Amino acid sequence: MKYPSRILFFILLIGMFFAFAEEPSAEVLTLPEGLKIVAEKSRIITISRSDEQIAEADAESVRSRLLPTINAFAGWSALAHQPKALFGPLIVPVSDKNFLAYSISIQQTLFDFRGNAARYDASRTAFAAKRLETQRVRNFAAIEFVLVYLDLLEQEKMITVAEKETEALDAHRRNAQSLYDEGVITKNDLLQAEVRISDARQRLLTARTTRSLLASRINSILMRPLRTEVQIHDIEEGQAGVVSSFSVEAAWELAEKQRAELQIADETLKALGFQETARRSDYYPRLFVTGGYDYTENKYQLHESNWSMTLGLSLNLFSGGETRAELKKIGYQREKLLEQREKLRDDIRLEVEQYLLQSLTASERLQVAKDSVRQAEENLRINIVKYEEGIGTGSDVLDAVSLLTIARTNQYRTLYDLRKSEAAVFYATGRDLLEVYR
What we know:
The protein is α+β, with helices and mostly antiparallel strands. It has helices at residues 2-20, 31-41, 43-63, 115-181, 187-221, 248-258, 260-280, 322-388, 394-428, 433-436, and strands spanning 28-29, 69-78, 84-87, 90-93, 98-111, 231-232, 286-296, 305-314. The protein has a single domain (32-436), classed as Outer membrane efflux proteins (OEP) (Up-down Bundle). The chain has a four-stranded antiparallel β-sheet with strand order 2-5-7-8, with no helix packed on it. A two-stranded parallel ribbon has the order 1-6. Strand 3 and strand 4 (90-93) form a beta hairpin. The model is unreliable at 7-25 (pLDDT under 50).
């Protein structure tokens, strides 16, 4: 019976080891690291890259029209009757009953008024537009992650504020309990402190729940299990650069140069121009050359094989008005796209101005909020001293704690409003956020 007892002893030791072993700390996620993961693994970016690859394949397909076409043929024929010809009273065979034949031909378009070349240019321009679309989608995914990341940082500060409020209220409750035990205050003052603590704890619980939801959202964006523990690192002040130095006009000019949406519209207009050239070439003839080699097994023929070359000209005389209709369609598409581009430019300008003004306003509000926190802290200290000396009331202390909580909440909300509006300005002006927050 000694061995079972030893086994139980070792099992107990192993259980105690795992019970007291420290859990591995979660890896701290920084904003640049998160952005890099988003750029590499985001589903919408992967989908956009697939569209880019499809556009590239389309361009390669259209390029084939600029190259010669080569065709080959080989076959063996078996006839029921041997081919023969009548020469007066004579019957003369002209071919074998069974014979082999093969041929190869090459055709190259020499000149088609840039029809095929314009089609290839249009496809390359469409490919460039798709690459810009991938860039736009990547920056959109980046700003989405940045805003959620900043929301999570803000919520962590809200938890800190709620914890400090709870600590301050708990300290006041202990003072109130001491004064009540000494008979200095009434039961009502003590009950007020208890109610305020209960309310603060509920807000702390709500803040922690909101933090968990934001952490799950971060995990969803990063394509990780939703319940993965998330520890993030705060961004340093000025890490993203200075926004306050931007003027509205300079920001507008920068956005018009860098926003992918406007560049996509410009590339699409170029593609329409190439498509128009390609369709207009249908009005004109096409010059081509064809060369080939043919062999037909026939002992009755003087030359069984032969080389050939043809210089040809083809012209579509009538297609029911298709070319004219296509040109009108392209013209309408151009007019529509020009109007859309103008509207897009105005929308981007409004977006830039809005976020820039928000960042400037938040910067001014932040300085006021910092002063309010200092004043609220001093106000709380004074009311605590007065209360302990018996010349103040518990309501004054509770009100001072509430004012300090509001001031701290406003400070952190304003701080992260500033950082989110700065990120929005960089996005609105077309900056690559992976470069901004590297």
